[in-house]
Amino acid sequence: MKIENYISNYCHIRNNTVSVNGELIFKEDSNSEFADFSKKGYKQLNLSYSKFFKMDNLSKLAFLGAEYVLNATKIDADDNVAIVLTNRASSLDTDRKHQGSIQDKESYYPSPAVFVYTLPNITIGEISIKHQLKSENAFFIFDAFNADFLHAYASSLLEKEKAESVLCGWVDYDGEAYDCFMYMISKKGQRKHTTNELKNLYKNKD
Amino acid sequence: MSQTYLSYNNIISSLGFTTAQNIENISLGNSGIEKVDDKKVLQTPFYSSLIKTDQLDTAFQKLGNSIDFTRLEKMMFLSLNDVLEQSNLEITAKTGLIISTTKGNVDVLDTNSKFPKERAYLAELGKQIQQFFGFKNEAIVVSNACVSGILAVSVAKRMITSGVYDDVLIASGDIVSEFILSGFQSFQAISDAPCRPFSKNRTGINIGEAAAAILVTSQKENLSPDALEILGDGSCNDANHISGPSRTGEGLYRSIQSALKEAMIETSTIDYISAHGTATNYNDEMEAIAFNRMELGDVPVNSLKGYYGHTLGASGLLETIVGMQSLFNNTLYTSYGFDELGVSQSINVIKENTKKPLQTFLKTASGFGGCNTAVIFKKVH
């Protein structure tokens, strides 16, 4: 028998607004920059985690999205929670920064602290470290939010018992434009895990 | 439940433009690593395994106009084209395309590049390949640091097993660029000599470039002679550090456990391990610990980085294809560059080419972000 899976909790971070399960958590005025906005998110979550301030923008965005979804879901460290993230711009925001540090041979200053963030899956590393998730994980790139793929991949992880639940999402940071939609697929919940439901939730303007 | 198989394949590297040429060089003990002095890429000379540009452009003439495509695209197109020609596969709505790359066309970010900056988007690389070969489905781009190449195999299997696709073509590739070399150099990870995986005197990695492609299929008919069945896989995170491996090899240990559980085999049935073996202190030590925790310390193991350097997003697939040939030829290939064991736990590094009946092998990889992947394969024929 095929086991039903559910979208138990989800979070949007876009347009300087954070919402969880469709409910507004907080909002900054639209002129505020991501650096300030992300700091507000950190404060709102009552975090005391200095690593956050070393992260690049993409990792900060993914980290905050994961915090909100995992807080709502309440997991234990020994829960087998897989992480599957996707985006369009990969780590290009930091790639450009690293390229800037090597472009001019007169001022050549490549830095390991920047270079390490030139990989999109570092976001998964950051979330895994914070929540001690030694579980299945993968990062994929698509032109746009791909509900069909995320649905198929998360379902296969659950079906093959590679994980008990899956933290999925679209986390994109490109220039000053960003978009984060993260959600948890669990065995229990109200919303069925279907591609249509994912597409609808992704578009959610709340 | 449907089985999945690795079938027709290709490697484009400094050791040749077909899998057969690459294996011939490996069996003769030829490494592709050379000293390179190119100030455009790095101020100081470095060791690398580079594809000759004139050879690449000559080979590419049959596919298109060289100036319209980036270096990486030419490598990946050639590799995928060879697989499609060998397999005679008809591309349908049930044929998937997976691209595995760490940095793609990141070299176009250089202000001196003649290509538009949009080319740096990985989905753009996916589109180039999709359109050129007429794939019906959007490319799935796996970009998961240094495990990408082997993770792509695992993803292909999962998408086939869940019925999304009947066949998947994987094209993987990364090039040597100033972007990559300057970054690894800032980490002080680059060796000033040819790399020596698992050796006492190892001094770090060499970065190399390659493309590799393979057909992953659920169809048992028309498999290649060297075909393997994918028995099990796992990709677990260390949850320890973003740029260094876990000291206990936790993520790799869990990945191998997960793969073995799915494969429903004992560790004792594994005949050969194709390790990651980058020749950095921490990586090689971590692998030795993880293998011993799994009681795999006696199993013959090699790293192919001594032939190719670390080819990033291509390495996992490239090394899997070499592993296929190892099983097909019943030959364990020398772990090039190895001298004296330089890890704290005992592992059985292959010192010379050895003929031996081989049935089952384990491929592993680990990378930044704490990622690890393990996949187990078994001979079909």
TrEMBL record, chain A:
Source species, domain of life: Bacteria
Protein name: 3-oxoacyl-ACP synthase
Natural source organism: Aureibaculum flavum
TrEMBL record, chain B:
Keyword Repeat part of the UniProt annotation: no
Family of this protein: Belongs to the thiolase-like superfamily. Beta-ketoacyl-ACP synthases family.
Record PROSITE patterns: KS3_2 (PS52004)
Coiled coil location: none
Protein's recorded name: Beta-ketoacyl synthase
Protein keywords: Transferase
Provenance organism: Aureibaculum flavum
Keyword presence, Cytoplasm: no
Domain Ketosynthase family 3 (KS3): 1-379
